[in-house]
Amino acid sequence: MEGLYYSESHEYVRVEGEFGYVGITDYAQEQLGNVVYVDMPEEGDEVEAGSEFGAVESVKAASDLLSPVSGEVVEVNAALEDEPELINQDAFANWIIKVKLADTAELDALMDAAAYREATK
Amino acid sequence: MASHFPACYVQLPPETEHRRAPFYLAAEEYIAEVLPTDNYLFSWQLNPTVVMGRNQVAHQEVNLDFCRAEGIDVVRRKSGGGAIFADWRNIMWSLVTGAGAVEPLFADYAENVASALCQLGAEVEVSGRNDIVLKGGGKICGNAFYHLPNRNIVHGTMLYDTDPRRMELALHPDVSKLQSKGVKSVRSRVALLKDFLPFGVEELRSRLRTLLCDRTIELDVEAVKNIEAIEQGYYDPIYLFGQNDRSDLSREARIEDCGSLALHFSLRGTLVEEIRLTGDFFETGHAQEAFSAAFRGIAFTPQELQKAIEAHHPERAIRNLSPEDLLACVLGEDLKR
Question: How many domains does chain A fold into?
């Protein structure tokens, strides 16, 4: 999807003002299969670029969530607590955490849509 | 997709045979991070151990007090799924592969292991879930998956002659009334391979290696040191017992000569983060402080709660509250009078 930033570990960040919405890509949800549980941090927690901030578990597998950006978690997507399958339905609409970006320069290290498409060919 | 078998067997140094489960889980991670992309397989055996799934709440899936009393190790893996019990008569298998989708790799792994067991004389098949079952019923292998961006780890149990009584008791929690989130275990009827194979567990392990692998790589002492460094992360109490969700639990009782007492626990996974008191009891000391000091940071299991009361006597801060009444209240038992 255009306009987003992508990490090598298949998370995306959608930037809106000083905030970044972080989720897993459509490619990632397809690799995992039906998601049954999302382990999320709490509001107020700090996440660090490249570090684990939770996990996604499907009927078959668990996978780490690595944050593409650093900053404070200002919101978690509470809808995923009861309906984790929303990630399968639309991974890009159903972000996992909203982060107050600590350093927008970190975005330069991420891929754009064209580069990510190439990486997941 | 091409098959991942025959794979490359990873030979760990002989002195690593009797380690705790996190050593081998860390070895999987080390192999995934450090070795060049290939399909690696290795097997391991454990003293009695419960291995919980990544997102399970400990007290909901495991009888922690029974495990402590029986010397059963309780650990957590990073793959998904439910809690398993393993002992020395069970073989654990780990497969580490390159990148790829979960579903086809799982199928390839299960089919190859099942086919090898069939060749050895056990009539097994792959079941709809991630299991290998005996034809006619009974689970032989349960498998779980840890998906990394550029690697995949599949590991599983193989029941040869595992103690079914201990398995049943260890995986049967006694604080079952608690409601929390997390991934629930799916209980299955199990079967034992020793009833279908004419050789012992060591022989089975070695024959499967021959059937599933055609080459070997040896890990040296330096690798073992790196694995041990990764292993330490598995013993962090928050990782082990703090998963996943915070939940609240209230216990209330009306106690004769004491009054009403309500205990509000905030749990993080299985650990007590905080406790608050309400009620019309009469304080003889700083009750809130006494209760916080007693219960904060302990695991919410009957034995741990009892030990906390015996060690700190929080009940002394409330008039006419006995340790027995307090324990009954904490456990949500009916007060017998």
Answer: 1
